[in-house]
Amino acid sequence: MHKPIKTQLILLITTLTMEMNIMSFLSLFIFLIFSIVTVSCDTPLSPSYYDQGCPEALPTIKRVVEEAIANERRMGASLLRLHFHDCFVNGCDASILLDQTSTIDSEKNAAANLNSARGFEVIDKIKFEVDKVCHRPVVSCADILTVAARDSVVALGGPSWDVKLGRRDSTTASQAAADANIPSPFMDLPALIKNFENQGLDEEDLVVLSGAHTLGSAQCRTFRARIYTQTNIDPAFAHHLQTICPQVGGDMKLAPLDPTPNSFDNRYFTNLMSKKGLLRSDQALFTGGETNEIVEEYNENQNKFSMDFIKSMIKMGNIKPLTGEKGQIRKDCKKVN
Does the global pTM surpass 0.70? Predict the structure, then answer.
């Protein structure tokens, strides 16, 4: 082979190799850039999310929750319920906290929340105190709801767990979605199972999260039909409730959801096995259907109920959170920035 031709071939091979290396480098660079963008836009939730930015956030939430429950024991159940009703409507994004405006279709006006959901002033107090110790609005209202639910359970004798954090707040709300997605106290078992399945929750989640009714009370309007028309109810229990809840009027009168409404225990499940579930949706869990065995298990083993409650609360808290650049950190939980 002539020397000039050999030299040209070497130069050509060298050039091609360099171009391929450059292309490989560019491909890798572009891949890394897209990976970084993807991570930043979809940041995973983490219990340590505020450890560096505001380490005093969680102790502050705990303090305000404990003060509110010390002032009124029922408030613990109310704060826990706010978190449930938030997560079941387009995810855990604090949409339930937004007031009605010309552009906000407030979930506070949904059938399950109107003249029923409460504790909003406690959330506002927590937000004020947290922003003060953090020196700026760094903790989302969605995370405040989630942590306040956990702290309420603990304050009333229930288990504790590490709450995954990093949710951001929605800029919209939907009364229609709340009416469609929040479980009704009038649902039967198939409807309840379907409702929870729509949120990515299974039958065990349904039973264990319904066990949150170990805390709190319900309004007469939610159980009137059960105590006057249903047959799968203990007669003495129904008669007692009829003294509280008349057939006409008294819609807002309260009855406890289990015999110890201010203590986290497994008495709720004992009630179901005795046909003393307050709501139709409560007793539906123990009527010979596929959830009977789960109810029996939690009635016999409070520790298992507590451990499974933790798992299901974490699972529910992961329903469609806004993370990364999605949503916002509201300055006022009642309105968008």
Answer: yes
